[in-house]
Design goal:
The chain is an alpha+beta fold. It has helices at residues 16-26, 36-40, 42-51; strands at 30-34, 57-61. The chain is 41% helix and 16% strand. The longest helix is centred in the first third of the chain and has 11 residues, at 16-26.
Length: 64
């Protein structure tokens, strides 16, 4: 089981500060985004997947 390094609740989901600073500071290898609208929008979800740094996994899930 993976160890949770950081939890953040933010309406911006994944933004530049998370990608450029926080991931490095906590040595995270994955990001979980929980958002119904984003999970239902395949195009926008792909944009978020591409925004992650190399080697960082991104999972997008609905709240349910």
């Amino acid at each position: 089981m993976s160890e949770i390094k950081l939890i953040r609740i933010d309406f911006r989901l994944m933004h530049g500060q998370v990608v450029t600073n926080w991931i490095k500071q906590v040595s995270a290898d994955s990001i979980l985004i929980v958002d119904d609208k984003l999970a239902a929008d395949k195009f926008l979800a792909q944009v978020f997947l591409m925004a992650a740094p190399p080697g960082v996994k991104v999972a997008i899930r609905p709240i349910e």
